[in-house]
Amino acid sequence: MTRRVLQRNKGKLITSTLLMTIMLTTGIFTLLMFKNWLHNQQQRLKEQHFAKEQIKRRFNQTQKDAVHTVHRLVPVLAAVLSRDADLDAIVHTLKEQKSKKKIAENQLEGSSGSISQDSMSGDSQQVPSKAELWQQLKQESLVHLMVIVYTMCMLLLLTRLKLNILARRQYLGSAIKLAVENESERSQTMNRWASNAWSYAVGLITGKQSSPDSKVNLETDNSKQSSPTEDRAAVVACINEEAFLSLSWWLLNRGWPLAQPLIEKHVRLQFGHLSPRDRLSITDFETLLSHAIHDINAELLAPGPQSPLLQCFLPDSPAAQRLVLEEALDDRTALRILFEDDSVLRQLLRETTACLQSTATLIVLESLVNESFHYIMQQTEQKVSKNARKGPQNGPPEAYPVALYAISVKEVCSDVLRHNATDDYNNEFLQRLDAVPELDDLSASVYSNFGF
Ligand SMILES: *[C@@H]1O[C@H](CO)[C@@H](O)[C@H](O)[C@H]1NC(C)=O
Ligand SMILES: *[C@@H]1O[C@H](CO)[C@@H](O)[C@H](O)[C@H]1NC(C)=O
Ligand SMILES: *[C@@H]1O[C@H](CO)[C@@H](O)[C@H](O)[C@H]1NC(C)=O
Ligand SMILES: *[C@@H]1O[C@H](CO)[C@@H](O)[C@H](O)[C@H]1NC(C)=O
What we know:
The protein has a two-stranded antiparallel sheet with strand order 1-2. The chain is mainly alpha-helical. 77% of the residues lie in helices and 1% in strands.
């Protein structure tokens, strides 16, 4: 009985191996064949209630894992981004100048009739004037806020994409195994054939360049136990997946500064003409900020090779990638294994790149930025009216000095990057971003589709 089953499978195996060899010579046809095959497997999976539930639960968990990962990265982000913009130092200098001025005014009182308003600002060439400091605070706090917004949106998006790509890779591996297992009376050989064909098919679909012959060889001696090879392959795949995740180092350290000049330019274009004493209503401020964001999006999220967006997400050259891996993976052995065989990593990166270059992703990123805009406007409005109540009341109450906006935006920056040591997952801004429905739609399509 068992013998006959084996015999029959052997027959099947030989035909399938033969078939495969033939198919290798007809590239595009093979690709379509496997796409069909995988599609059928997927369809069959969809009919299996058990697998479906499992897959759904896995999807939910993956989205949670993604936002938890970003929550944990918030302190890192805060440290990295604040290194660049030291708003506190500007505020400190401003306060210092104010107290110096007060002392000077007290000393001058009575001794001279004419007190020059600008006596303090003109006393030294090196020290920036009060007006210059306010200009600096205005520009830098807005740039800092925009950098935080774009970096946070990109980080959440990238983490979602990566984890969904990995989760699908894992669940499909096991789910297809399960389905094929059931179908062929739990025949081990068929099972292995399926998983080999699966990895082979993935390679084809994503254009993996590894030699197809090795796969065919695996097919032919299928009847033998090859667990050491499988173990080794599992280790290599695991290290590759780890390297894939660790490449987020790039966005956190090298990626976001590439978007900064663009942000600086558009903030200056919208807000540059305003002096700290000018008054703006909340609506005016909102209009200027939305123009700035619109123009940043137009350049940053434009599809095409001239957009710096892809370079923000991923290392832009093999040399840069190697540098990041050496930086992020400190295990020398793992690094050596990875450099020997990085085919899984290259395949994952190809898929991620395809996702990142798709219009769907650009739209999701824009939705995230829009959501951020609403959130930061809400926060800024609260801060501005609160800070205005503290200060002296003059001028129309619905318009506030630009200086007040600068101080308020600085406060919003630190709120947005706030992290709570007792409760890791308590960042309100991130929770708002994570609830953007387009993000779930994109995640679901990455999680469930082939060949994005
Ligand atoms: C996934 O999460 C959603 C909402 O968070 C819930 O309604 C749904 O039942 C969950 N599905 C599974 C399979 O856990
Ligand atoms: C395996 O197949 C049988 C019918 O042949 C079906 O009843 C059962 O649900 C399947 N099991 C799984 C896990 O799909
Ligand atoms: C973002 O907001 C702008 C302005 O309100 C709007 O034109 C655009 O369609 C929005 N984009 C998305 C993806 O929702
Ligand atoms: C941190 O989170 C805990 C629990 O959610 C909360 O009770 C506490 O007030 C938070 N601390 C700060 C500083 O926000």
